[in-house]
Amino acid sequence: MEQVVLLTGGTGSLGSCLLYKLALQLPAAKIYVLCRGTVNEAVQKWEFYMAEQIDDILDSGKVHCIRGNLNRDGFGLDPDDLKRLQEEVTVVIHAAADISLAQSLPDSIQSDCLPVIRIASLVQSFKAVKLFAHISSTFAQMHLSAGVVPERIVKVADDEPPPQTQLASILRTGKSPYAHHFITPYAQAKYLAEQLLMEYHDSFPILIVRPSSISPAVSDPFPQYGPDGAIPLHTFVTLALARGYDVLEIINGLPQEFILDEIPVDLVANTCLLHVAAGTTGVVHAAAQLYETLTVAEYVSRARKYAPKDVVERIAANGTKQGQPRQLPLDFHGLLMEEWRDWIFDCQRSKHLKNTPGPIGLQCTHVCEEVFRERVERWSKRLGVLL
């Protein structure tokens, strides 16, 4: 049966990749995209992200934009649009998120927790829904100590209050007695969102996909797809350089044996879609184990190998413009130097899919280092302009 999909976050980096695959690589009958702004604004974002692919996506006749706001109860949907969703939608993919690590806990709850509850509540009225897929994050379990992170929800404490009680307390006070367990407020918001969503498991089947840090695409919508603002590592280095911080000093201070867990955006999309097609429920990780695991030392070695010498020299000079190296602000310094642990995000539930061929498969048909080289060369040109 061809699915009718409701996609939130469809104008973001991962959401746009999912839209491309749903429209052009899968037999989806219809894709409803929830858009906060106008249709023209959505199209402009898609044209910016994937200018050569957007015409084919729209010409497929599958994409239907619906105006709605995730920050409002019921999303402010037009009654006719709501009725169509209630009658037709078989799969919901909630990919909307705000990946800012600098937000306060109340702001993170507003952007990354409450919308999950709102859409889950709305989906209870969908008559044909077969699966709710929520794109979470491996940050949701970064309260755990170093080691293997399982594909399930592990609580901070056995005696912690129910998630609804914790949420109510945060909304009332802006604080949480469990905040110190989490690497960032974003992580705590994701943690609570997962638990609150699972309270709806009697109403519809639920799949939670936890990507690790997202990197540029291997293949789709095109090789190296992914705006820098949606690639956490690119964002970090770009901001650090722009503010005159000593990037090389920061990198040298990191634990070199830790895994720098990244996965290409199109493999995150494929992991999600393969599990949606299989009707998987519960938690699955989309992390480096499904692609390539590199330690910080290995990552840096490759970057130095392929980055133009003049760019490396200018990066080094950038951090000492004021006569001495500038360090990161205390919050980011603490995040990297004190809070980061040697996590290994288990991907056992997707291991049987690693040899799946085709456009939504996880089979690796390329040389990972060659993809890395292309990424470094492309990114170096952008950094050269910045420096």
UniProtKB/TrEMBL annotation:
InterPro entries the UniProt entry points to: FAR, FAR_NAD-bd, NAD(P)-bd_dom_sf
Top-level division of the source organism's lineage: Eukaryota
SUPFAM superfamilies, alphabetized: NAD(P)-binding Rossmann-fold domains
Catalytic activity: a long-chain fatty acyl-CoA + 2 NADPH + 2 H(+) = a long-chain primary fatty alcohol + 2 NADP(+) + CoA
Record Gene3D superfamilies: NAD(P)-binding Rossmann-like Domain
GO MF terms held by the record: alcohol-forming long-chain fatty acyl-CoA reductase activity; alcohol-forming very long-chain fatty acyl-CoA reductase activity
Cellular component GO terms held in the UniProt record: peroxisome
EC number(s) from the headed UniProt entry: 1.2.1.84
GO biological process terms held by the UniProt record: long-chain fatty-acyl-CoA metabolic process
Swiss-Prot/TrEMBL keywords: Lipid biosynthesis, Lipid metabolism, NADP, Oxidoreductase
Family statement: Belongs to the fatty acyl-CoA reductase family.
Protein name: Fatty acyl-CoA reductase
Biological source species: Hirsutella rhossiliensis
